[in-house]
């Protein structure tokens, strides 16, 4: 892991919803944790549904939520939506600068502008001045998003043909990076001339190498915090891989200050997967249990897949501390994982042995594993809260059990017991 790149810092929010800081490390600021954003999928003008979705995403862990405002009725709805939520709201503005002005007037906490769609200099300046004066003069930040999908010229047909001709040349990625950076520089000049620096930059693409290259180059040229994302990532099943590969690579190289993973799916999965990626990289302190489980194989003697899902569902709602919980399906990897976990179970012949910080506490039949495991997690969580235990501390070393003992299938033990007694043992009938 590389040290995080220092940037300017921007702040969004207010006294009621709280404040989220993005970036930092320059001008005496302390770097803020990498924050997780998402976007609503419903119509913003459907006020009740929009509020319900925002609150659900907030409960899932979203720290910033963006809403689309393509029409005036959407910005009008913000006046009723914002007082009912507890998270900073970003207005996603495309094509018409007046939607940005209306959103600022409605009390939004940040504006997203697209240089590919809003190019008129005077209109951009009007938005900048509105954001400067927002929140009683405290101001609100603006994200400049130079996405691949909108950066190529659309209005001037001749210019578009020329750009597309270069774009689809052999060096497609190099040309795209050049045009993204050029248009970003031209756009930023307007902001700098107005002495406006509360800026976040994004440069998204559907292509993972392009995303990595674009943010890497932009991070060398500008000191603004970066909003990472892969646009048009696809359904969760494939979009997860596409997004995590790109964003994880950048973050591991010290690049990125806030993220949005994008799926053609329920936005709560964007939040959950974004947080899990940050937890896994060690750049955010985990909230809730860390569940690890062994891959299934021919040694499994319990329904491990169902058990893991049941455990995940239970601990996600009842465990608040970052307890490391191991659910292992056999005695091969089980002991080692149990030593490294706060609470662990490893299973054998339709039963499981449960350990708490390396100390054996139960040997239960398969049907009781879930309830007893949750019971031990809750008991351990209470001990930690009372200061009677600490996370990550094991008390004893676990000795792997005899495979023909407590968790063994019994066949080997039976054969061993009858060895030399003239009794044959047939496994599997016939």
- Portion of residues in beta strands equals 15-25%
Based on secondary structure, the structural category is alpha/beta
Strand order of the largest sheet: 8-7-6-5-4-3-10-9
Instruction: Report the strand count.
Output: 15
What are its keywords?
TIM Barrel, 5-stranded mixed beta sheet, 14 helices, 430 residues, alpha/beta, 8-stranded parallel beta sheet, single chain, 15 strands, 2 domains, Sulfite Reductase Hemoprotein, domain 1
Secondary-structure map with pairings?
Blueprint lengths: L8 E6 L3 E6 L11 E5 L7 H14 L3 E5 L3 H10 L7 E4 L4 H10 L3 E4 L7 H13 L8 E4 L2 H4 L5 H11 L4 H22 L5 E4 L5 H14 L5 E2 L7 H17 L5 E2 L7 H15 L8 E4 L10 H15 L5 E5 L5 H7 L2 E5 L3 E6 L2 E7 L3 H17 L25 H7 L13
Helix pairs in contact: 1-2, 2-3, 3-4, 7-8, 8-9, 9-10, 11-13
What does the model show?
The protein has 14 helices and 15 strands. It is an alpha/beta fold and 430 residues long. It folds into two domains: 9-281, Dihydropteroate synthase-like (TIM Barrel); 290-414, Sulfite Reductase Hemoprotein, domain 1, CATH 3.30.413.10. Helix 3 (97-106) links the parallel strand 5 and strand 6 (110-113). Helix 7 (172-193) runs parallel beside helix 8 and helix 9 (236-252) packs parallel to helix 10 (267-281). The radius of gyration is 27 Å and the shape is elongated. The model is unreliable at 410-430 (pLDDT under 50). The strands form three sheets. The chain has an eight-stranded parallel beta sheet with strand order 8-7-6-5-4-3-10-9. A five-stranded mixed beta sheet has the order 11-12-13-14-15, sandwiched between helices. A two-stranded antiparallel ribbon has the order 1-2. 41% of the residues lie in helices and 16% in strands.
